[in-house]
Amino acid sequence: MTETNPIRDAIQQAIDEHPVILFMKGTPDQPACGFSARTVAALQELGAPFAAVDILPDPRIRQELSEISNWPTIPQLFVDRELVGGCDIVTEMYESGELAQALGVEQPPEARAPESPDAGPAPMGIENRLS
Amino acid sequence: MPTAEELKQRIEATIPDAKADVVDLNGGGDHFRATVISSAFAGKSRIEQHRLVYDVFGDEVGGPIHALSITTRASE
Q: How many domains, chain B?
């Protein structure tokens, strides 16, 4: 007898159907966690359309998602069915311009990280806007 | 309750030739930031590098370690 796992199937289907999909705590309008909020802010800053799934309503969503992705924490961003990363990696990639590249969008000029840590005051990044 | 020093020691004991710097972000023993440098990261993607660090703690991440923010760098 084959085991059915509707939750896992639904998650996999969502990943397959959406080129950019974020699994997060809360919603883009009302993130329920600072890490999810930062990740949403990076995506919104780039103006890239993305699908979002709130994992909070059912603890099994997170459990199954982590089984699929082999990644223990939330948020998780998938692009073209591949796990890109969580908040740390997405933030790093946003600052370096790699996220814009991965999403096929233009990097806003103000989002570029300074050449070196001594290159002057930090640009208006997502960190600043969230404080 | 895990401490930053304990996390640092466990990372350095598990990942070959790792140097770790761990900060307890709010003093509560559940939100940490780890900066890890190791030659084991060379040639690996960010995802793979971060997985190596998560793997040190297994199920504790998301459990007692509520949040573990990671920055990794490959040493020469």
A: 1
**Tokens 């990942």 — which residue?**
B15
Q: What is the CATH number of the domain that holds B14?
A: 3.30.300.90
Residues 10-39 of A with CB under 8 A from B: 35
ω into residue A123 within 30 of 0, thus cis? Answer: no
**What count of CB pairs under 8 Å joins A to B?**
34
> The domain containing residue B13 runs over which residues?
4-74
Residue reference for tokens 């993607």: B45
Sequence letter at residue A84? V
Q: Which residues of A touch B54 (CB under 8 A)?
A: 71-73
Candidates A65, A71, A62; CA nearest to A13 is A65
Contact state of B46 with A71 under an 8 Å Cβ cutoff = no
**Mind listing the domains of chain A with CATH numbers?**
6-130 (3.40.30.10)
Positions in chain A whose pLDDT score sits under 70: 1-2, 110-131
Chain B residues in contact with A84 by the CB 8 A cut-off are 47
Q: Are A59 and A116 in contact (CB under 8 A)?
A: no
Rounded to whole angstroms, how far apart are CA atoms B72 and B20? 9
pLDDT digits 0-9 by tens, A46-74 = 999 999 999 999 999 999 999 999 999 99
| Mean pLDDT value of segment B56-70 | 92
